[in-house]
Amino acid sequence: AGEHTCRDVFPAIIRQQDIRATEIDKVKVAESFRVGDVVRAVVISLGDERSYFCSTAKNELGVVMAVSEAGNQMVPVSWREFVDERTGAKETRKVAKPV
Prior knowledge:
It is a single chain. The chain is mostly beta strands. The protein has strands spanning 12-14, 38-40, 42-45, 52-55, 62-65, 74-78, 81-84, 90-92. A 3-stranded mixed β-sheet has the order 1-4-3, with no helix packed on it. Strands 6-7-8 form a 3-stranded antiparallel β-sheet, with no helix packed on it. It has a two-stranded antiparallel ribbon with strand order 2-5. Strand 6 and strand 7 (81-84) form a beta hairpin.
């Protein structure tokens, strides 16, 4: 038990019901994460032999780094949006509150 940062890549699944703590039925996975996002999450179970089950259902958990569809680094502008500073395009994510 306790907190440990995982420095290695490992397969994990974040299920719809584990993305947010409230309004779980309204969560859209595609508006929460994209391929390539770096996500702060907690492991909630070992899952199966292929992956862990993780959760981002706390304010401090979620996307910490994102790349836009244009391929540029993005910065968070709210709890649910990142913006591409180069193009100004906004994209929806489940943004991790800074700790």
